Amino acid sequence: MRTTVLDGRVYRSDGVTLNWHLPTEVENVPEIQDLQWIWRCRSCGNSGISRIAPMECAGCNAINITRHRLLQPAGFAVDLRHEPHNDITIPQYILPRDPLVSLAVDWIELAPPLLGRYRTSPTGQLVHYSNGLYGNGYSLCLRCGWAKPLPADNQPIDEKPHKRLRGGRLNDREQHCPGNDADWSILNEVYLGIATQTELFELQLRSTGFEQTFDKDKIVAYSLAVALRRALCQQLGIEEGEIGALVKPARGSKNELTHSLYLYDVATGGAGYVSQIADQLPELLRIARTVLANCPNDCDAACQGCLLTYDTQHHVDDLNRHHALALFNTEFLAAFPL
Ligand SMILES: [Zn+2]
Ligand SMILES: [Zn+2]
Ligand SMILES: [Zn+2]
After folding, report:
1. Nearest ligand for residue 320 CA
2. Which ligand lies nearest the alpha carbon of 66?
3. Quick one: pLDDT at residue 219?
C-alpha cells in the first residue's frame, strides 16, 4: 500500500491519473502542460514553479538552486489488480511537507523601518507537494501514470517491466506498459503537487531577540508565526484551521540570512483574512506577545494551552514561546511600542 498526502488529504495510490494519452509512436518527452518544474533557491530561499527548466533563481539570480519535475496529477489511480480486502495494515504515512510559497510583490518597511518589513499579495502562490516517503521524489511513467516513491538510497527502482496501471481487469490479458521500452517515458525524482493561489502575508522582523543561530531563530520565527495566527483568528473570530502558518529561511533587505514568517488563507483563492494583517500589525503583534507570555499551563516551551494545535504538532520541535518572547525586548519595544 502506498499513500500520498497532498493538500492535507491522504490518498491511497499506485500511481496518478494522467491528463494525456500518448500515441505509441512518440519518441521524445512531449510537451505536457501538467509537467512543470519546481525550484528552490539555496541562496535566498525563494521558490517557484516554471514551465521551462529554471537555470537560476528568479529572485536573486543565484544558480545555486534545486529543481525537480513537478507533475500536477488529474487524480490518483489505484491499480485494479489489487484485490479489495478488509485487512487494515499500517500505511506508509508520509508527513505533510510545508507547502512552497512565493509572492512577487514589493516589500513595505515597518515604521520605524529598522524593525523589519512585510509584503502581502492576494495572488500568492502555494504549492502543496509530495516527494515520497524518503523525500527523493517518485519514479513516474509518463505513459500510464505508474508512480512509486524512490527509496531512501535514491537508487532507480528496479521493477521493470511494470504493468500498465489500469491495464485491464484480467491478469492474463494484461500488457506490459510500452513506457518500459522507451528511455524517456520514465522520469525519476518527480514531485507530485498541486499549485494554487491564495492570499499570502510575509513578515521579516529585525530584533536582537534573534541570535543568528539557524535552529534557534527558526524556533523564534515559527513560534511567533503561530502566535500571530492566533492573534489574527481572535480578532476576526475565525478558526485557526482557516489560516496556515509557516517559516522559511530567507534573505533580509541587507542580504543577511534570516527567516520569513508566512500566514496564508487556507481556502484556495483566498478568503479575505490575511490581507487584513498589514493594517492591524501593531495590534496583532501585541496580542501575539500576550499569547506567548500567558500560557494557562505556564508551560516550558509549548502546549495545547498555547501554541500546540492540530497542524503545529508536526513542528513541535520548532515551538518555544519563551524563545519568541525574546523578540519583544526593551530595545524593540522602545522603537515599536505595542
Ligand atoms: Zn535566490
Ligand atoms: Zn507505464
Ligand atoms: Zn503552553
Report:
1. 3
2. 1
3. 95
Please give the distance, rounded to the nearest whole angstrom, from the Cα atom of residue 181 to the centre of ligand 2: 10
Counting ligands in written order, the one closest to the CA of 167 is 2
Cα 8 to ligand 3 centre (Å):
25
DSSP string, 158-215: --PSPBPTT--S-GGG--B-GGGG-GGGEEEEEEEEEEEEEEEEEEEE--TT--S-HH
30 phi and psi, to 5 degrees? Answer: -75, 165
Averaged pLDDT, 224-241:
97
d(CA 122, CA 97): 23
Q: Is the pLDDT of residue 121 over 50?
A: yes
Q: Whole-number mean pLDDT of the chain?
A: 83
What residue ranges do the domains of the chain occupy? 3-81+130-194, 206-335
309 phi, psi to nearest 5 deg = -135, -175
> Distance from the CA of 77 to the center of ligand 1, in angstroms?
36
pLDDT at 279: 93
